[in-house]
Specification:
Helix content is 48%, strand content 11%. By secondary structure, it is of the alpha+beta class. The chain has one domain (35-400): Cytochrome P450 (Cytochrome p450, Orthogonal Bundle). The longest helix has 32 residues, at 229-260. The radius of gyration is 21 Å and the shape is globular. The chain starts with 15 loop residues before the first helix and ends with a strand. It binds protoporphyrin IX containing FE (HEM). Protoporphyrin IX containing FE (HEM) binds at residues 56, 87-88, 99, 149, 238-239, 242-243, 246-247, 250, 287-289, 292, 344-348, 350-354, 357-358.
Length: 401
């Protein structure tokens, strides 16, 4: 018998070693069993760049958790009662219809127009920081995406505080496959509050010409097909849960990589035109989303490993990003790395809708830090990683000016 391979909970941040540093386990798995039939979760866990990319781009693969087998891991994401599915968990044609309706607001061009406003928000947040030691997450990384999306949706500024609090609570549980009863109860209250807020905002926009994102969704018509109120509510929720924490974690993980590698911080400060490449390297080096996945549409084999119809296939984006076959010397953080092919935004039909926005927010946040805090270093109070399976980010990250 060989050594037991990491499986189940050991491949989530609920495991202490994985939470501190997931990459040694992922390297081990990629070397020993790149397509791993996980005995604990009964899913198939893939770690090679070529496999992850192929699975995510495969048009036959499914995302709707209701199509997963009974008791399969993906079933945990199936909606309850009359809850609407969001596009992340839909298959075509419904997926395409919904995605096309919100797509326009997130094109690289539309987002580039928002860059000056995003820069302004970054500097407002940096200007409000007091003291020599501060928590980068609470001061900048968490509020930035929340303010940006609230403004895009058209939420009134007086409601931003509540909006952020509810969306944080709701998001923490949304992707957590193992929430506690208390977390579930709190998330339900937060979600009800948010949905009430969204329904009020939607009602206000009926019959108006408001050009924010909620207004655009209310008016959107494709093939004569309008979005129902509940569909708009569901898309608003998805933008929060998919966009806020992930962007927070990009900024947190990215700045941590710079502080852990002072030579790279110096390189970027000396040549800020590297910023676009540096943010791609941050996404590769320590991706906010560590796993994505699909559901097998039929019985099949992946690299000799049998996969059953309706079984979950987990694609480890974190492992793919550190695959030495694609990224030489993968554990090195190099802001000038050439030919970065990270999988951090997934791929194929479900490729992250918000990627252009996340990139601009990440770039502006790091540029703002370089300008205001060029001597930034680790603070005395350290950092704490969160333990939401599939994700990687910090709840606190103390830095010193
Ligand atoms: C660094 C930040 C972000 C990361 C790492 C990230 C990552 C991802 C990943 C891995 C997926 C699934 C892709 C797949 O399975 O193929 C995804 C989907 C999605 N993301 Fe992001 N995301 C980020 C920011 C955002 C932002 C800012 C928004 C919007 C405000 C957003 C909206 C979405 C949406 C709507 C989907 C579902 C797309 C679909 O199913 O067609 N994301 N994202």
């Amino acid at each position: 018998m060989g050594e037991k391979l990491p499986s189940g909970i050991e491949l989530t941040p609920l495991d202490d070693a994985y939470r501190a540093d997931p990459y040694p386990k992922l390297h081990k798995l990629r070397t020993a069993a790149p397509v791993h039939a996980d005995p604990d979760f009964a899913n198939v866990f893939t770690t090679r760049h070529q496999d992850v990319q192929k699975i995510l781009r495969d048009k036959e693969m499914l995302s709707d958790p209701r199509k997963a087998s009974e008791n399969d891991l993906s079933r945990r994401f199936a909606p309850e009662g009359d809850q609407q599915l969001s596009m992340l968990f839909m298959d075509d044609p419904d997926h395409r219809r919904l995605r096309n309706l919100v797509n326009k607001a997130f094109t690289p061009r539309a987002v580039e127009d928002m860059r000056p406003r995003i820069r302004q928000i970054v500097f407002d947040l940096l200007d409000a920081i007091e003291g020599q030691e501060f928590d980068l997450i609470a001061s900048l990384a968490a509020p930035l995406p929340s303010i940006v999306i609230a403004e895009m949706l058209g939420i009134d500024a007086s409601k931003h505080h509540d909006f952020k609090e509810w969306s944080d609570i709701s998001t923490d549980v949304f992707f957590n496959m193992f929430p506690t009863d208390d977390q579930i109860a709190q998330a339900e209250i937060a979600r009800d509050n948010l949905n009430t807020l969204f329904r009020e905002e939607i009602d206000k926009r009926r019959g108006t010409n408001s050009n924010d994102l909620i207004g655009a969704m209310v008016r959107a018509e494709e093939d004569g097909d309008c979005l129902s109120t509940e569909e708009v509510v569901s898309q608003c929720n998805l933008l929060l849960v998919a966009g806020n924490v992930t962007t927070t974690d990009l900024i947190g993980n990215g700045v941590k990589a710079l502080l852990d590698h002072p030579d790279q911080f110096e390189k970027l400060k000396a040549d800020p035109t590297l910023i676009e490449n540096a943010v791609e390297e941050m996404l590769r080096f320590d991706s906010p989303v560590v796993n994505s996945g699909r559901i097998a549409p039929q019985d099949m084999e992946l690299d000799g490993c049998p996969v059953h119809k309706g079984q979950s296939i987990t694609t480890s984006l974190g492992a793919a990003n550190r695959d030495p076959a694609v990224h030489p010397n993968p554990d090195a953080f190099d802001v000038a790395r050439q030919n970065i092919q990270h999988q951090s935004f997934g791929g194929g039909r479900h490729f992250c809708l918000g990627a252009p926005l996340a990139r601009v927010e990440g770039q502006e946040a790091v540029l703002g830090i370089i300008e205001r805090y060029p001597n930034l270093r680790h603070g005395d109070r350290g950092h704490t990683y969160k333990s939401v399976p599939g994700f990687r980010g910090m709840s606190e990250f103390w830095v010193h000016a």
